[in-house]
């Protein structure tokens, strides 16, 4: 059994724009409760702003509290689910990478810190006044999405662009984000994370990624160290362990099958590797998670 990957087409109804979805959050979870009731990932970029409600939002095994003014950002492939303790209200929108980047050719999604790197937190806490002013923009976005006005897509794109800029300003003031020493280093790190996502099952050594990037292993380690204060090996192992956790918790596969899926030579080696990185064996992790 695999972790379900939800596609944007599963949410789209009539009067929609291709590769874009906008809704009030209360309506979203009511309409799509069968789709989102269990842990899942997406093939799109997602943004939620809460105006009311409480609970827990788990993203790739990190738990975050839900509260008024909380904003969450999700990139394709991240696994998440919600547990609410009071009724949530707010707004949600999501879109494909192409929907945004075809309109803003000189300004990709990775230029926003919350989408730039997995090392940066996927959330933001807005002050009450900022939440209030941005909720007006979200309401305008939601209204525009539901209606068929002239130049609708242009206005929607502009509103989303404005929202991302405002969130970026609040995010950089609110969070200690990883600062990148140069735009060149930023690009290398972005490409490295993409390559790791594509090849971590089979390629677990830095040399492979350095070769793919046409740089030396030494230079690649320098880039990773200077941008996020880690080694390339640490980034690779973090991705392997994250996938292992996803498979351990969100599938019914036995642990030997998971070791095979991740291309470890045998379960004993996988278990030793997992324990070295997390402090628990795969079996202990599965039991603790469901305790």
What does this 3D model show about the protein?
Keywords: DNA-binding, Transcription, Transcription regulation. Pfam families: AraC_binding, HTH_18. It comes from Maribacter litoralis. The protein is 49% helix and 18% strand. The chain has 291 residues and is of the alpha+beta class. Strands 2, 4, 5, 6, 7 and 8 form a 6-stranded antiparallel sheet that branches. Strand 4 and strand 5 (62-66) form a beta hairpin. It is globular, with a radius of gyration of 20 Å. The mean pLDDT is 88.
Q: Average pLDDT, to the nearest integer?
A: 88
The rounded Rg comes to 20 Å
What's the overall geometry? globular
CATH superfamily of the largest domain: Regulatory protein AraC
Please give a handful of descriptors for the protein shown.
291 residues, alpha+beta, Jelly Rolls, Arc Repressor Mutant, subunit A, six-stranded antiparallel beta sheet, two-stranded parallel sheet, 13 helices, 49% helix
In short:
With 291 residues, this protein is of the alpha+beta class.
Task: Summarize the topology.
Layout (H helix, E strand, L loop, with lengths): L4 E2 L13 E5 H7 L1 H4 L4 E2 L2 E15 L2 E5 L3 E5 L5 E16 L1 H5 L11 H4 L6 E3 L2 H19 L5 H23 L8 H17 L6 H7 L4 H12 L3 H19 L4 H7 L5 H12 L3 H8 L2
Parallel strand pairs: 1-3
Antiparallel strand pairs: 2-7, 4-5, 4-6, 4-7, 6-8
Helix pairs in contact: 5-6, 7-9, 8-9, 10-13, 11-12
InterPro entries: AraC-bd, Homeodomain-like_sf, HTH-like, HTH_AraC, RmlC-like_jellyroll
Organism: Maribacter litoralis
Keywords: DNA-binding, Transcription, Transcription regulation
């Amino acid at each position: 059994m695999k972790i379900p990957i939800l596609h944007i087409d599963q949410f789209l109804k009539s009067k929609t724009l291709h590769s874009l979805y906008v809704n009030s959050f209360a309506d979203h979870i009511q309409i799509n409760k069968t789709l989102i009731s269990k842990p899942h990932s997406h093939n799109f970029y997602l943004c939620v702003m809460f105006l009311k409600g409480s609970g827990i939002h788990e993203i790739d095994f990190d738990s975050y509290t839900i509260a008024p003014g909380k904003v969450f950002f999700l990139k394709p492939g991240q696994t998440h689910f919600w547990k609410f303790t009071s009724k949530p209200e707010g707004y949600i929108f999501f879109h494909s990478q192409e929907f945004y980047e075809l309109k803003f050719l000189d300004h990709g999604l990775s230029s926003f810190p919350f989408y730039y790197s997995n090392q940066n937190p996927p959330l933001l806490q807005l002050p009450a006044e900022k939440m209030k002013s941005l909720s007006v923009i979200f309401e305008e976005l939601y209204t525009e999405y539901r209606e068929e006005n002239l130049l609708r897509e242009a206005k929607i794109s502009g509103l989303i662009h404005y929202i991302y800029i405002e969130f970026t300003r609040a995010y950089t003031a609110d969070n200690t984000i990883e600062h990148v020493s140069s735009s060149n280093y930023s690009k290398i790190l972005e490409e490295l994370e993409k390559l790791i996502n594509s090849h971590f099952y089979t390629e677990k050594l830095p040399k492979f990624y350095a070769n793919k990037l046409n740089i030396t292993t030494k230079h690649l380690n320098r880039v990773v160290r200077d941008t996020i204060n880690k080694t390339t090996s640490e980034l690779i192992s973090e991705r392997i362990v994250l996938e292992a956790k996803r498979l351990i918790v969100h599938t019914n596969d036995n642990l030997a099958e998971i070791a095979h899926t991740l291309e470890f030579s045998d379960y004993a080696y996988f278990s030793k590797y997992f324990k070295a990185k997390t402090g628990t064996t795969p079996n202990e992790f599965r039991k603790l998670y469901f305790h």
